[in-house]
């Protein structure tokens, strides 16, 4: 990316605000930004595959990406996570240099800053300050995946549904408005909690009857946050 352009200045500000690069000096950010290019994908497209993630490092700047696995025998899908603006993909490949065999789908029109994985690995050695934010991010990701595995093993579908909403509103400045899972289909929501759509629909209906949420097509709004949190504590 060329310096002293409107695009360069825009992405400079984006990276400077990113927690992953917050320890870097302005000069270092300018240096690494010249190595980035911009890629775009339309809603419904598959932005990343296992071969690409081994060779490219992505920093999402706009939109959401669904990362999921599919059982080849029965077609059952499980959504591992939803990435949004500011998220890195793929942190696993950055560390082990192996292909990450997952499926991805753009839930919106998606834009990302992209750099060869080889260069991203060099930053780890060349800029030790980069590790100050990278390692905590890795720790958070490990905790996230551990918590998901534990929830699947120990919580029932009702508790996992409640927790799905609670985790989302905790990341949002406007708690009544869902952020990552806003406007997802009920099938996708069911796949996030590892259940069937009809089971999720029963839970949504119960929450609606209790006036905790309001559902209109794929849009869900939290109407009573206190009641939702109470259900979470008692689930």
In words, what does this structure look like?
- With 235 residues, the protein is α+β, with helices and mostly antiparallel strands.
- It has two domains: 6-143, Jelly Rolls (Sandwich), CATH 2.60.120; 155-234, Orthogonal Bundle (Arc Repressor Mutant, subunit A).
- It has helices spanning 6-17, 26-33, 50-55, 91-96, 117-126, 128-154, 157-169, 186-192, 197-209, 225-234, and strands spanning 37-41, 56-62, 65-70, 77-83, 88-89, 103-106, 110-116, 213-216, 219-222.
- A four-stranded antiparallel beta sheet has the order 1-7-2-5.
Order of helices and strands: HHEHEEEEHEEHHHHHEEH
> In the CATH hierarchy, what is the superfamily of the largest domain?
Jelly Rolls
For the record, give the distance between the C-alpha atoms at the N and C termini, rounded to a whole number. Answer: 50 Å
* Biggest beta-sheet profile: 4 strands, antiparallel
Uncertain stretches: none
The CATH architecture of the largest domain can be named as Sandwich
- Count of strand segments: 9
Count structural domains. Answer: 2
Task: Provide the fold topology.
Blueprint: H1 6-17, H2 26-33, E1 37-41, H3 50-55, E2 56-62, E3 65-70, E4 77-83, E5 88-89, H4 91-96, E6 103-106, E7 110-116, H5 117-126, H6 128-154, H7 157-169, H8 186-192, H9 197-209, E8 213-216, E9 219-222, H10 225-234
Helix pairs in contact: 1-2, 5-6, 7-10, 8-9
């Amino acid at each position: 990316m060329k310096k002293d352009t409107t695009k360069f200045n825009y992405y400079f500000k984006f990276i400077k605000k990113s927690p992953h690069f917050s320890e870097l000096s302005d000069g270092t950010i300018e240096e690494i930004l010249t190595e980035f290019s911009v890629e775009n994908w339309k809603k419904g497209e598959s932005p990343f595959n296992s071969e690409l993630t081994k060779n490219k490092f992505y920093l999402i700047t706009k939109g959401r990406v669904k990362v999921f696995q599919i059982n080849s025998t029965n077609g059952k899908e499980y959504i591992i996570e939803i990435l949004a603006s500011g998220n890195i993909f793929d942190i696993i490949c950055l560390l082990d240099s192996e292909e990450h065999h997952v499926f991805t789908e753009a839930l919106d029109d998606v834009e990302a800053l992209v750099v060869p994985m080889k260069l991203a690995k060099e930053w780890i050695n060349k800029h030790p300050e980069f590790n100050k934010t990278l390692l905590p991010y890795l720790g958070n990701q490990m905790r996230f995946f551990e918590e998901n595995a534990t929830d699947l093993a120990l919580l029932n579908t009702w508790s996992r549904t409640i927790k799905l909403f609670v985790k989302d509103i905790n990341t949002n400045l406007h708690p009544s408005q869902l952020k990552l899972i806003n406007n997802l289909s009920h099938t996708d929501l069911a796949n996030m909690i590892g259940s069937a759509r009809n089971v999720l629909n029963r839970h949504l209906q119960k929450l609606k009857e209790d006036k905790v949420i309001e559902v209109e097509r794929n849009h869900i709004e939290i109407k009573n946050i206190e009641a939702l949190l109470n259900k979470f504590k008692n689930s």
